[in-house]
């Protein structure tokens, strides 16, 4: 498996509790390297665009409200099998179902305020990276 990139967000519930470093440490310990990182406060337009695939889901407006409720840290992660490895260390969407040792088991507050986002495929990783980063902001 060649080196791959994925896209990660440290969500507002985690930045609010000063967990940016703790979450990043778990990503790094999982074998992922942070090759781009910035702290932003997403606009409603950005959050609606980013989560466009969920527009018809019942939780969409709550999710947009949550993701714009405070700062987030958007990151590009690089490593062997990065998409799958990141999903593994994140744990299940619902922290009640997340395995021990995962980020969501350790830190998530609820199914919505679940501390991290990670791309679910290599194709979506590319789309999501391009949504937030210019090529020159990524230093591998
Ligand atoms: P993510 O996209 O953030 O990495 O998380 P995921 O794949 O595990 O979950 P997904 O189904 O894509 O849902 C995106 C985000 O929406 C919120 N959510 N709320 N209230 C609810 O039932 C509900 N379900 C999902 C979570 O913040 C989830 O990460
Ligand atoms: Mg998802």
Automatic annotation (TrEMBL):
Active site, UniProt feature: 117
Cofactor(s) needed for function: Mg(2+)
Top enzyme category: transferase
SMART domains: NDK
Superkingdom per UniProt: Bacteria
Catalytic activity: a ribonucleoside 5'-diphosphate + ATP = a ribonucleoside 5'-triphosphate + ADP; a 2'-deoxyribonucleoside 5'-diphosphate + ATP = a 2'-deoxyribonucleoside 5'-triphosphate + ADP
EC number annotated for this UniProt entry: 2.7.4.6
Keywords, comma-separated and alphabetical: ATP-binding, Cytoplasm, Kinase, Magnesium, Metal-binding, Nucleotide metabolism, Nucleotide-binding, Phosphoprotein, Transferase
UniProt-recorded Gene Ontology molecular function terms: nucleoside diphosphate kinase activity
CDD domains: NDPk_I
Signal peptide region: none
Keyword Metal-binding: yes
Cellular compartments annotated: Cytoplasm
Positions with a binding annotation for ATP: 11, 59, 87, 93, 104, 114
Residue span, Nucleoside diphosphate kinase-like domain: 3-140
Family: Belongs to the NDK family.
Subunit structure: Homotetramer.
Role this protein plays: Major role in the synthesis of nucleoside triphosphates other than ATP. The ATP gamma phosphate is transferred to the NDP beta phosphate via a ping-pong mechanism, using a phosphorylated active-site intermediate.
PANTHER family: NUCLEOSIDE DIPHOSPHATE KINASE, NUCLEOSIDE DIPHOSPHATE KINASE DDB_G0292928-RELATED
Protein name: Nucleoside diphosphate kinase
Species of provenance: Sphingosinicella rhizophila
Designated gene of the protein: ndk
